[in-house]
Amino acid sequence: MPLYLLSVCYPADAQQPDPEALRQIMIDVGAVRDELVASGAWVFGGGLHPASTATTVFERDGDVVLTDGPFIESKEQIGGITVIEAADLDEALGWARKQSRAATVPIEVRPFMHGGPA
Predict the structure, then answer these.
(1) Count of domains observed in the chain
(2) CA-to-CA distance for 71 and 96, rounded, in angstroms?
(3) Which of 47, 51, 58, 96 lies at a 20 to 30 A Cα distance from 27?
(4) pTM of the model
């Protein structure tokens, strides 16, 4: 069955909800996760620490270089990911709708490539 990445996207102007609203969001997000697990669609997922905690690793002139911070500097952030199995894009989009309602932020859906490099 195809795999899809559902990314939790925080827009540049996103503000952290007040504690009570955040508590309810976490309850709602947990309920969607429980539904994914119960359906057999859940593969794995979780929240991410802020982009400022990232380390970028790349090759330059035969050396491996490490830099503090994200590879892409952006005000938009990926706050978490979920990998699911779904029969098709329509099913994956259905799960993304539920996640977006629960998390109150956009969810980006991307299919994984199958069969390795061309």
Answers:
(1) 1
(2) 26
(3) 51
(4) 0.87
